[in-house]
Specification:
The complex is a heterodimer of chains A (382) and B (389). Chain A is built from 11 helices and 10 strands. Chain A is an alpha+beta fold and 382 residues long. Chain A has 3 domains: 7-121, Orthogonal Bundle (Butyryl-Coa Dehydrogenase, subunit A, domain 1), CATH 1.10.540.10; 125-232, Butyryl-CoA Dehydrogenase, subunit A, domain 2, CATH 2.40.110; 235-379, Butyryl-CoA Dehydrogenase, subunit A, domain 3. In chain A, the strands form 3 sheets. Chain A has a 4-stranded mixed sheet with strand order 1-4-5-8. Chain A has a 4-stranded antiparallel sheet with strand order 2-3-7-6, with no helix packed on it. Chain A has a two-stranded antiparallel sheet with strand order 9-10. In chain A, helix 8 packs antiparallel against helix 9 (316-340). Chain B is of the alpha+beta class and 389 residues long. Chain B is globular and about 80 Å long. The chains are: A alpha+beta (382), B alpha+beta (389). At the A-B interface, helix 1, helix 7, helix 8, helix 9 and helix 11 of A face helix 8, helix 9, helix 10 and helix 12 of B.
Chain lengths: 382, 389
Amino acid sequence: MRFRFSDEQEMFRRTVRAFADRELTPEYLRELDAEAHAPHWELLPKMAELGFTALPVPADYGGMGGSVVDMTILLEEIGRSSLSVASMLNFAIGFGCETVKRFGSEEQKQELLPKIVGGEMCFAFSLTEPDAGSDAAAIRTRAVTDGDEFVIDGTKIFTTGAAEARCLVVATRTDTEADRHRGISLFIVDPKSEGITCRNIEKLGMRGAGGLYEVHYDGVRVPKSALLGPLNGGWDAVKATLERVRLSQAAYCIGCAQQVIDDAVRYAGEREQFGQPIGKFQAIAHLLADLQVEVDAARWLLYRAAWIVDAGERCIKEASMANLACTEALLRVTEEGMRVYGGYGLTMEFDIQRHFRDARLFVIGDGSSQIQRNLIARGMGL
Amino acid sequence: MSMDNDATVDFGYTTEQVQIRETARGFTERVLTRAFLQEIDVNGRAPNELLPEMAKLGFTGLPVPTEYGGSGGNATDVTVLLEEFGRSSLSVASLLNRALGWGADAIQRFGSDAQKDYFLPRVASGEMIFAFSHTEPNAGSDAAAIITKAAPDGDDFIISGSKIFTTGAAECPCLIVTARTDATLGKHKGISVFLVDATTPGINCRRIEKLGMRGAGTLCEVHYDDVRVPASALLGDLHGGWRVIGGTLERARIAQASYCVGAAQRVIDDAVQYANEREQFGQPIGRFQAIAHLLVDLQVRTDAARLLLYRAASMIDEGVPCMREASIANLHATETLVRVTSEGMRVWGGYGFTREFEIERILRDARLFVIGDGSSQIQRNLIARQMGL
C-alpha cells in the first residue's frame, strides 16, 4: 500500500495552489458570493493556460490524459479556496468531459473535447424535474422524433449554470412504453436554442457556481446528432456520470473542509480568552482534533475510490462511500468549526458563514446522503 | 521501503499479505471456534497454549528479523495479521500482540545483543510472551508519574512498588517493568525499563476480575517487593526508559487499531447476514432503510478506520514519523469498534442480549480500547498538539 502521491502529482498540486492563491483572493470570492457572480468565462481561459482544463481530456483530443487521482488533486486544491469555483470547473472538465468521453460520438468528441481543453466549454446538467428529484428516473420531459430532428418539451428544475453554460445536457424520455429506466435519452443542447427559457432561483449558498435555474423547453428542436449515447440508453450514461460527479464533489468538499480546519486552528492559536489562546482549552482542541480525524478518514475514502476507478474496476459502493463521508464531513466541519469563532463566525466579515451555507448543497445535490446510503446498502448485499 | 517517487497512491495488498491473511483465516476458522472463544471468555483464561501452533504457522515470528528465526515482515504485514485475528477474537489478537508486538518490537529496537539473542528466537518459536507492567494506581493517563523504584545494588537493581492493570502478568515468562531510577531528574528523565523474569522472588499478583477481554490474559495488580534483577535486565539506557516507551507507542497504537478494525468488520458482516435472514413485517429486516442505513454508516466508518490504519502502518514502513497518524488511526478505529458494537447490537434485537450470540462479548471487549494504551481523550491531546494547538 502507498499513501503518498508521486513527485509529479505533488508538483501539480503546488501549481494549482499557486493559481488559487493568486486568482481566488478572499475579496474576489466574497464578491462572487455577494453578487451571485458566475465566474465561468473569466476563469476557464486562465485555467486552460495552466493546463487544468486539459487534464482529463485524452491526448488524441489535445488533452493531457490525466488519471482520476490527478483530477481529484486538482478539484481538492481548488476546493480549498472555493467550492463554487471548483464546482464550476467540474461542470467543464468533470461532468461534461466525462460524459462526452464515454458516451459521445466521434463527431461530438472532435467538436467538444478540444473546446474543453481550450477553456471555451462548460456544461450544465438538466436532469432534475419538479417531480423527479431523488427518484431521478421519473423524468417526464419528452423528446419526440420529427423527421431528422427531435423536439424537446418539458420543465427542468435546479439546473445549475444553465444560463452560463455553452452546452446543456438534457435528460428526456424518448420511449414512454418502455420500463422507466429504459426509455431515457440524453441530448446535447445549445442553451441559445429557440424555445428555452430560464428562470433564476435565488439560493442559500454556492452562489458563485453559476445561477440555479428552472428551465422550460417549449418545442426545442435539436438535430439527431445531438443525441448523446444510444437512443433510450441514457440511464446508463446518467448513472456512470453521477458516479464520477460524486467523486468530484467529494474532492472539493474535502479540500474545503481541510481549509476550514486550518483556518480555525490558526484562529484558535491567536484568539485569547481566560488568559490563554482558546486552542489551549481541551474543549476547543478536541473539537478540532475530531474534525481533523473525520477529514483524514474521508479523504482516504476519496482517494481509494479514485484509485479503483483508475484501475478500471467497478466503484459504485466506494464512490458513494467517499461522497457520503466527504460531504457529511464538510457539513460537520462547518457547523462545529463555526463554534471556534464565537460571535465573529456569524458575521459576513469571516468566510466560515459562506462555507457553512455552501456545504448544505452537497448532502442534497447529486444524490442526497440518504440516496448514497441506499446505494451503499445495495453494494453490501442489503 | 517504498520510496519510489514516481508512483501514485496504491491501496492494494501484496501477494505475501494476501497469503498472510489467508493463512491466518485458515487458523482462526479451525481453532478459534465459537465454543473455544466462549470457554476462554467464561473462564477468564488466557489460551497461551495456542502460541506454539501460531509460531509454526509463522505468526509470532512475522516481524522478527530472519537472523533471529523470524520472517522479517514489516508493519503493514503485521497489521494484516492482527486485523485478521481481530476478526475472530480481540482477546487472542491482543495475546498474539503481547508476543510479537510490544515486546519484540521494543527489544528489536532498544535491546542489547544478548537480549536480542535470548528473546527474539523465543518469540519466533512461540515460547515467549510479555506483560507490560507500567500503569500504577496514581499513574494512569499521566503515565510518567510512576513511583515504582529500581535502586542499584552492586551489579543488580532492586525493584519495589505496585503496578496495576498488568495484563497477563500471572501467566507469562517475562514482565516488562518500568521503574524510576532517578527521582532527582525530571518526571520523564529518571525512568528505566527492565525485562524481569516472572518467577523472580518478591513478585505477587492479585487477579482483578474484568468486564471483557477475558481471554487475553489475567488482569493483575502486581506487587514488587524488593525484586532483585541483574543489570543485564535493563532494556535501553539507564534513565532512558521514556524513550523506549515513547518509541514503541506508535506500534502499540497501530496494533490495537488493527484488531479493532478486524472485529468491527466481523460484527458488520455478521449483522448484514443476520439482517438478510431475519424476517419481520413480512420481509428481511435488512430491507428496511432504518436497518440498512444504520449498517451502511457503520461500514463507511469501518472502511475509513481501515484506511487510516494502513496509512499509519505504511508510514512506519517508510520510516516517516507518524505520531499524529498513529493516534488518528487508534482513535478512529477504537471508537469505531465501540460504535459498531453498540449500534450493531440493535440489529439482533433481543437475541443480541443473549450469550448465544457473539455480539455481547465483542461489545464488552470493545470498551477496553477506548481506555487502554492511551484513552481517546489522550489520543485527542496528542493529535491536537501535532496540529499545533
